[in-house]
Amino acid sequence: MRRKRTALPEDPKRNRAFANALARAKSYAKDPKALRASFEQVVRKTGSIPKAPFKDLWSYFQVMLRLIRAYYRGDYRDVRITNLVVIIGAIIYVLDPWDLIPDWIPVLGFVDDATIVAFAVQKTRETLDDFTAWETRAP
Amino acid sequence: MKKAKAKSKPRIGKKPGQKEIERRVARPKAALRSEAFARALADAKAHANDPERLRVLFEEAARKAAAVPRDPFEDSWPYVQAMLRLVRAYFRGEYRNVSQEGLLWIVTALNYFVDPFDLIPDEVPFLGLVDDATVMTFTVARTRQTLDDFMTWEITAF
């Protein structure tokens, strides 16, 4: 399928690249094993991504990574599937230019990563905050 | 009725009136110059290296973090949670890659956070945590690298 540049790059929902990431995220969300296979190595390499553009949201991005890890490991499953899709979608979008996700069709970055992460945080803040609360409760 | 209830509690300093609280909210930096902050810092200087004290602080702060509204802290909230996990990993000896200065600021911030009678007493509705949020924002700015390094460790070490 041919991909077009979108007219409104500021709106993540109308962004093709992000829509693709979300579509891919959907199949991952249903299959923790596949999620694990793709993410286990990837997540370790995220230290090399420049943090500056994310500002304070970097910490929320880290929460997303830890949440996904806890999810595929089966430690934490208290996440609605729609929220999980948004979180995985944001991670795929951010990591894509680093070629960290195997089998993922490269797309030109239309919206900057920080905008996507901000969008995902706005949608899933409650989920992410609940997860960090669980982390401090966990033994 | 409220006044009578308040009187029975031991208090450090005077109880601020509504006008005084509004004035304090309007000047966010006041939290950093407050007596409560100085107290938190002095306590951190004395006890930041005592694992047992850190354990008690962690438990108290974690309990409070689970109970208070998150809104005043905005986007620094996950950093507050990161401070908690860092202190836990530190007193357990799992993670020691923190400078003395970084640890000192983090312990100071958590001390301030658990103190119910800080610049704006935490019981004041809506405003009670505004000063705590100011202290947290200040501390995150000072220790961002430390906290980011810690979170990178969390992701890569296990």
Question: Mind explaining what this structure looks like?
Answer:
- Chain A has one domain.
- Chain A has 139 residues and is mainly alpha-helical.
- Chain A has helices spanning 16-29, 32-44, 57-73, 81-95, 113-137.
- Chain A has five helices and no strands.
- The model of chain A is unreliable at 1-9 (pLDDT under 50).
- With 158 residues, chain B is mostly helical.
- Chain B has one domain.
- Chain B is built from eight helices and no strands.
- The longest helix of chain B has 28 residues, at 130-157.
- The termini of chain B are far apart.
- Mean pLDDT of chain B is 88; it is low at 1-9.
- The chains are: A mainly alpha (139), B mainly alpha (158).
- Chains A and B meet through α3 and α5 of A and α5, α6 and α8 of B.
Summarize the structure.
Chain A has one domain.
SSE topology sketch:
The complex is a heterodimer of chains A (139) and B (158).
Chain A: H1 16-29, H2 32-44, H3 57-73, H4 81-95, H5 113-137
Chain B: H1 2-8, H2 18-26, H3 30-33, H4 35-47, H5 51-67, H6 77-91, H7 100-114, H8 130-157
* Ends distance of chain A: 48 Å
Largest sheet of chain B: none
Taking all Cα atoms into account, the compactness measure Rg of chain A is: 14 Å
Q: Compute the number of helices of chain A.
A: 5
List the chains of the largest interface with their residue counts. Answer: A-B, 23 and 22 residues
User: How do the SSEs of chain A run, as a string of H and E?
Assistant: HHHHH
What ranges of chain B have pLDDT less than 50 throughout 5 or more consecutive residues? 1-9
Could you say which structural class the secondary elements and strand pairing of chain B correspond to? mainly alpha
How many structural units, i.e. domains of chain B?
1
- The share of residues in extended strands of chain B comes to under 5%
Domains counted in the coordinates of chain A: how many?
1
Largest sheet of chain A: none
